[in-house]
Amino acid sequence: MKYFTKVGETEREFVFARHGNRIDATSDGRSFAIDLASVGDGTFSILVDGRCYDCVIDRQEGRSIVLVKGERIVVDVEDERERAAHAVASAKGGGKQILEAAMPGVVVDLRVAVGDVVEEGQVLVILEAMKMQNPLAAEGPGVVSKVLCQKGQAVAGGSVLVEIDPPESESPEVGAAQ
Amino acid sequence: MTDRNEPPFKRVLIANRGEIALRVMRTAREMGIETVAVYSDADRSALHVRRADRAVHIGGSAPSESYLRADKILEACKQSGADCVHPGYGFLSENAGFSEACAAAGITFLGPSAEAIRLMGDKVAARRVAAEADVPLVPGLKDDVKDDAVLLQKAEEIGYPVMLKAAAGGGGKGIRIVHEPKNLLQAAELARNEARSSFGDDRVYLEKFVTKPRHVEVQIVADQHGKVTAFGERECSVQRRHQKLVEESPCVAVTPDLRARMEDAACRLARAVNYVGAGTVEFLYSEGEFYFLEMNTRLQVEHPITEERFGVDLVREMFRVAAGHPVCDAPEPRGHSIEVRINAEDPDTYFPSLGTIRRMNSPGGPGVRMDSCLFRGMEVTPYYDSMLAKLVVHADDRSTAIQRMIRALQEMRVVGVATSIPVALRTLHSELFRSGDYDTSILEKIDRSPPGELVDVAMLAAALGKYLRTEEVDASSGAAGAGQGANVSMWKLVDRVERLGRRIL
User: Fold this and answer.
1) What is the pTM of this model?
2) What residue ranges in chain A does DSSP mark as E strands?
3) ipTM associated with this complex
4) CATH number of B11-110
5) CB < 8 Å to A27, chain B
């Protein structure tokens, strides 16, 4: 089975084969001899063709976060089956923007309502967290379809604040939560 | 007073938390002064409580219910029999009312007088005092202007870009830079809102935004006899969102002549307000000139780089001058020192990262100092500052110090929250930082992507992890292959990975 990984715009696929204690990895036509030892607590000593890498592999929300030599690299990883399933799912909801609270905070200003036409970069919400005011802006043009927060409300990290439909969408959902 | 080894105080209460509380306790313990910690609900298990001699609970997790409550802290002083208070930085450290209340209660406040805090804490008043003491200033308005039309006209006179700063501000909060007139009024509103919610004071003032600015500050310690000692400068230009990330001493841009002038200016300002204790005078350096920014009337986060270069313990000096001893002379500085702040934050967005510290490794070896409040199992909560630790290195010269910091950061590991370590590594590897010719825009200019080799390794590791989790292990085919020991150990490994996998892999 193939394993697909992605970091930013870089993508690589891997195929593995086990030979006793050794794992052979193949990626883009190149092969590597892997020797892997778990040293506990999610830390692995990985020897790649004899080069040493001490890695922590931490899984969060379907992504792998790899710590190696002071770096912290977030890797999207899926196998062939998952990729096929995701391809079907993403064909459905395209173009929708979701504005999330990147961290827990308080909504100190809410500048849009359902039905508003917004432009790229337009500030929709100001979230105050750790005493900093962070303007949250639309990533692209569209029409506000849902507003899921109120001014003065404390919100958890990752909670959805505003949903925006693509501009060509004719009828924003009526009666969305206020 | 005569015996240098006699403890100047019996018992100190540290009105703070985190790494700075531990920092102060270390010196107090070395001096034979007993330590009293205070703690909020969220901090019962914090290291500063566990390392103290005594501890007093002072209230709820929000700072406004605990660490900012002067009344509760004074009550804790009485309850624990403390004869002095060290305020650390942040919280009540620059609160004139607290300094006064301590004095009224007969408890020594390890810092300057209420009057000095008031004068330097109000940026408008501080600029006036600095001007009187012949300390150079950036062109700007001396007072807050609330009239929109006047604000626009004054900004035009000063010349864009201009900067709006909270009069009561600090720590980079309430600062807005404006490049064009059309953005001025909205920025003023945002700055006022931030100032009001952070400091309870919405006054902002306007000044010229200096080009290619470097943030260079001078450390001073003043005693009760009018003597002020300057301990050289610190370069703090590596900032994100106006908050410092990497600091070094000395600053490569500062010549011996300029250093002497900056130190003299800092000492003049300290004398002008009858300063006592440790303080920092912050300057903006631009193209060979320097301008007064503000004076921080407290111990600064980045004080260790000064300590490492001068071989001086600034907290010890704070205790000594508060007890009436003369401040020491500045020893001859040696080598180069760098500090990196380890914050719990996303290295790309700089947003705070919350969670439980599941594992950590501290670096060691020659020339490495770690001031930290980290421990395995620690919760990083939204209540307090995101700084978890400070990594400090010292070496004979700048390039050795840079290499030493890189290797120490590579040894350091924090699992459970994201940290600022990758940004610090990018900075230290960058040509711009290495050349020394950088300013406060450095983090916007350097390449922030991790090295390609490590991205490849991370992808391989992530794929390998998934492979080990999902691949069906065919026992019979494994045994049919090489047989014996090799397969058994592979089985054990995979089994272990599977069990760990539920939580970690």
Assistant:
1) 0.79
2) 2-7, 10-19, 22-27, 30-38, 43-48, 51-60, 63-68, 71-79, 97-100, 105-110, 117-118, 123-129, 132-137, 142-147, 154-155, 160-165
3) 0.78
4) 3.40.50.20
5) 460
